[in-house]
Amino acid sequence: MKQRAGYLFMAPVALFLLVGFATPIFIVGWYSLIEPRTFELTSDLTLANYRAAFTEGYGGPFYWSILGAFATVATCALLAWPTAKMLHARAGRGAAIVTGLIAVPIFVSESVRLFGLSLFLMPGGGILAGSLKALFGVSIGTVLNTKIAVWLGLVYVHFPFMLFPLLLGVALIPQDRIDAARDLGASRWQVLREIELPLALPGLAIGALLTFVLCIGANAEAAILGGQAVTVVTRAIEQRFSYAQDWPMGAALTMLVTLVTALVVFPVLSRIDLNRLIRR
Question: Are the CB atoms for 110 and 153 separated by under 8 Å?
Answer without folding.
Answer: no
